[in-house]
Amino acid sequence: MKQKNIFNFTVIFTQDEDGIFVADCPAIPGCHSQGVSYEEASKHIEEAIRLCLDVAAEDTAYRDTISFPQQDAPLADTQSAYTHQSRHAPGVYKSAP
């Protein structure tokens, strides 16, 4: 059986001036998404994280730019998970529990 690694990435949600929810995963360079609702943005950022990890599995230079919770964990057959972190700052959406 293949081993799957689960990584927990922090995702920061903000709401722009037009009401669009923007999701950012700071640990993965270039990993951003958006949606018209919190739920849609959440779904889109999860897909973006998975796609970024797929690219990282093939591209060592990109992989080296990602801040993994455990740097020595292999990327083969990696399953991503993410956590919502609320921040108390203007314009930042506080995630539901």
How are the elements arranged and paired?
Blueprint (H helix, E strand, L loop, with lengths): L5 E10 L5 E4 L7 E4 L2 H21 L1 H4 L15 E6 L13
Parallel strand pairs: 1-4
Antiparallel strand pairs: 1-2, 2-3
Name the features.
single chain, 97 residues
Average pLDDT level: 78
What ranges have pLDDT less than 50 throughout 5 or more consecutive residues? Answer: 71-97
Could you give the order of the helices and strands?
EEEHHE
Assembly category = single chain
Main sheet characteristics: 4 strands, mixed
Question: Can you count the beta strands?
Answer: 4
Spatial order of the strands forming the largest sheet: 3-2-1-4
Question: What is the tally of helical segments?
Answer: 2
Form type: elongated
Q: What proportion strand?
A: 15-25%
Nearest-angstrom radius of gyration?
14 Å
How far apart lie the N and C ends? 34 Å
Structural class: alpha+beta
Explained architecture:
The protein is α+β, with helices and mostly antiparallel strands. The chain has helices at residues 38-58, 60-63; strands at 6-15, 21-24, 32-35, 79-84. Strands 3-2-1-4 form a four-stranded mixed beta sheet, covered by helices on one side. A hairpin with a 5-residue loop joins strand 1 and strand 2. It is elongated and about 45 Å long. Residues 71-97 have low confidence and may be disordered.
